[in-house]
Amino acid sequence: MNIDIPEGKDPIGYVWGELVPGIGMAAANLSLAVYQHTTLGLREFEAARLRIAQINGCMFCLEWRTERDGEKVEDDFIDAVTQWRTTDAFDDRARLAAEYAERYALDHHGLDDEFWSRMTAHYSQVEIVELTMSVGAWLVFGRLNRVFGLDAICVLPKL
Question: What's the whole-model pTM score?
């Protein structure tokens, strides 16, 4: 479904801000907070974010690369995300972040004791909660943008 965007309006700003201002502005604040207040390393952050983007099929999420202090992941990082199980480009934290994102999106009931044992060996509880909130935000907002066709007509601002 495509949302009718009035001429001259920014699609994201219109849908998120004007159509449902009470919900949309809160959602926008959560989306921004994930980027502005993260304590996660850039590689694990991007591994999880890009895995959700791949699952959602959100075109601009797939093109976006988070920048921190002038640093971004390498251009072929998305290929490593696709092959998160076998790539040698990931350390344990990045691999677990990609795995967690995938399982959270596709099989959250399958997050068993074996997985949590591996996860807690590499992440603190604070980091796991932060990663979970981030993955949840990317899942819902990327899907919203994809379902409404916003991903085909939007350009994300630099944060």
Answer: 0.91
